[in-house]
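In response to the reviewer comment on reproducibility (Comment 2.3), we provide here a single inverse folding case reported in full, input and output, so that an independent group could reproduce the run without further information from us. The structure tokens appear first.
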């Protein structure tokens, strides 16, 4: 009997083979969670091929230095981008995934970062040097979001009042669904505006 495949494996959805978008998770926020699930739907609606990246963060990750964490994320994302042989043109990442914004800057790739970790100077510096279209989405109640940094890096910004790091409103599931709709709508406009 063959070994069973892990439930959370790389998942691909075919569209235009020359326009691949890589969906990058957070620490505990997989591509199956609402923000990334609907990001995939938006990308497919616009004809992109979508490659979801699934990862298992190492047990010692909390003890790693910031530079080592960034290196780990960049290694995962860099390998996935390289596997597309030049067709990967867009990154859509959640939280920890934004530690790969240096890759987007270096390769002049468009990116949408959902709850990027703007409290890290390395992330802010990479965003400042990125010249490709970029969307930053965060909530005012998210401790890892910094409105001043978001507005200073020269990219599109959507800040959701009172939303936390999951872009949800505390004790308000109906309101949180409304936030999801707002974010998906903005992401749809952003993806639709890309000329890649």
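Designed residues, in position order:
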């Amino acid at each position: 009997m063959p070994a069973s495949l892990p439930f959370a494996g790389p998942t691909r959805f075919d569209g235009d083979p020359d326009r691949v978008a890589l969906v990058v998770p957070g620490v505990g926020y997989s591509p199956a969670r609402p923000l990334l699930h609907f990001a995939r739907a938006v990308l497919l609606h616009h004809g992109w091929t979508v490659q979801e990246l699934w990862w298992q963060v190492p047990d010692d990750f909390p003890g790693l230095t910031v530079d080592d964490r960034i290196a780990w994320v960049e290694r995962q994302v860099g390998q996935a981008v390289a596997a597309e042989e030049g067709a990967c043109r867009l990154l859509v990442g959640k939280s920890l995934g934004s530690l790969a914004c240096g890759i987007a800057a270096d390769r002049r790739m468009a990116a949408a970062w959902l709850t990027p970790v703007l409290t890290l100077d390395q992330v802010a510096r990479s965003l400042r040097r990125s010249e490709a279209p970029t969307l930053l989405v965060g909530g005012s109640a998210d401790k890892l979001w910094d409105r001043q940094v978001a507005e200073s890096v020269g990219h599109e910004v959507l800040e959701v009042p009172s939303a936390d790091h999951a872009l949800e409103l505390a004790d308000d599931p109906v309101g949180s669904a409304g936030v999801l709709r707002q974010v998906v709508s903005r992401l749809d406009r952003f993806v639709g505006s890309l000329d890649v």
